[in-house]
Design a protein that fits this description.
The protein is mainly α. It is built from 18 helices and three strands.
Length: 434
């Protein structure tokens, strides 16, 4: 039988001891040790005493108070009291490698943390939450190590010179094509194309347009080749040709357009400058913005303005090259192709390579399908295959095919860029998740 007595009442403790003696007397002789243990159990102060069995007492120190609850509940209470601590634990690697709170804010956004999520951690926005996380994570030194320029990162003067190199080499190649004929002209074209490709590769591997992601180079080369040969081949195919290979002129049976290609090569330098301005201005706006919505609102006009500036410069270059070379300037197809390539590269540079790859593939497939449908229409019973392209070319000319394909692709990438490139996580370090 077990008895419980309140430790704070001496009278009840004495009564319990007397009752124990009486019951011990009825059931047999009770030892003095049993009586002493009963008395000490009754005199315990500030807790309960449980007597389990005859003469056995369990002190209050050995019994966990029910008001404190189980240990998991107490751990959960500590986590609820400091919710930021658990977030720091989940993103400790991000906090330890960040050089300022802005990188933590960008990384949190990349992991799906929004201003509404930050409110659950008792902060008004992600930037404020990132500042606390940055301050609470210990580091080896309070003074950050000076950031040194990577060996493969050229200075501003070098990447500006690299941006001008493709245009200069392309201009020299076009001049060589105009001054030579026959086999010498073919050799000049091959050497010039190789030199321009090497220079363009150097621009894309260094400077603001460099990226570690896989870029759809083959599809971009197809689009550039179509800009030179596509319209002439389509016009010749609709006329029953072509009867031979291109002769290097715009007025031949298979005319080529060198003005758009030269203008696009010259536009590499403006594209490099636009990528640099976007990166630096986005970094500055990260430092002054106090919320993700504020950053997006401030960066969207900048992105649209830079794309518009590039199109203005490209339009001027197309007009200039068309006038100098005495060729059609090709404004519609040149502008849409330039916008498509610029947006695809900007998205790839900032880590969003999937959408540009799909769009460039779709545009290249559309142009190839247009050409193939014209030749398929010559087969018996396949006349209907060439009707869509014939109708489109009859209304707007051969330029309608690349203009519509590249224009639709550029519009899709522009919408995608206004959503992706205006996020803080797009301008985080290179190892950010996507």
């Amino acid at each position: 039988m077990a008895y419980a007595a309140g430790g704070g009442s001496a009278g009840r403790g004495a009564g319990a001891s007397a009752e124990g003696f009486r019951r011990a007397g009825q059931g047999g002789a009770a030892s003095a040790a049993d009586a002493g243990r009963a008395g000490r159990g009754a005199a315990v102060s500030g807790g309960d005493v449980r007597l389990a069995g005859p003469g056995r007492a369990v002190s209050a120190a050995d019994t966990r108070p029910a008001s404190r609850g189980p240990w998991p509940a107490r751990a959960a209470a500590r986590t609820a009291a400091d919710p930021v601590k658990s977030l720091i634990h989940r993103h400790r690697a991000l906090c330890e490698r960040a050089v300022d709170p802005l990188e933590i804010a960008a990384g949190l956004e990349a992991h799906g943390v929004t201003d509404r999520t930050a409110a659950r951690f008792r902060h008004r926005d992600v930037f404020s939450l990132a500042e606390e996380m940055y301050a609470r994570v210990p580091r080896d030194t309070d003074t950050p190590e000076p950031v040194t320029e990577a060996p493969d990162t050229p200075s501003a003067a070098r990447w500006i010179a690299l941006g001008l190199l493709p245009g200069v080499l392309c201009a020299a190649t076009v001049a060589a094509l105009r001054l030579t004929e026959g086999r010498v002209q073919a050799v000049a074209a091959a050497v010039g194309a190789l030199a321009v490709a090497v220079a363009l590769g150097a621009v894309l591997r260094r400077g603001p347009l460099r990226t570690e992601a896989h870029a759809p180079v083959g599809r971009a080369c197809w689009l550039l080749a179509y800009a030179v040969f596509g319209d002439g081949l389509l016009r010749a195919a609709l006329g029953g040709g072509p009867d031979g290979l291109p002769d290097g002129t715009a007025t031949g049976p298979w005319g080529i357009a060198t003005a758009p290609l030269l203008a696009l090569a010259l536009s590499c330098a403006p594209a490099v400058g636009i990528a640099h301005v976007l990166a630096t201005r986005a970094r500055r706006k990260l430092a002054t913005s106090r919320g993700l919505a504020d950053f997006t609102t401030a960066l969207r006009p900048l992105l649209l303005g830079l794309v518009a500036l590039f199109l203005v410069v490209l339009a001027a270059l197309l007009t200039l090259t068309g006038t100098v070379l005495d060729e059609p300037h090709g404004l519609p197809q040149g502008l849409t192709l330039g916008a498509l390539l610029l947006l695809a590269r900007l998205l790839t540079v900032h880590g969003f390579a999937h959408a540009p790859s799909l769009v460039l593939t779709a545009v290249a497939a559309a142009e190839a399908t247009a050409l193939a449908s014209v030749f398929a229409g010559r087969l018996p019973g396949w006349d209907v295959a060439a009707l869509p392209v014939e109708s489109l070319v009859g209304l707007w000319g051969p330029a309608a095919v690349p203009t519509s394909a590249c224009g639709l692709g550029a519009l899709v990438l522009l919408v995608h860029a206004t959503r992706r490139l205006t996020r803080a996580s797009a301008h985080a370090p290179a190892d950010r998740p996507r």
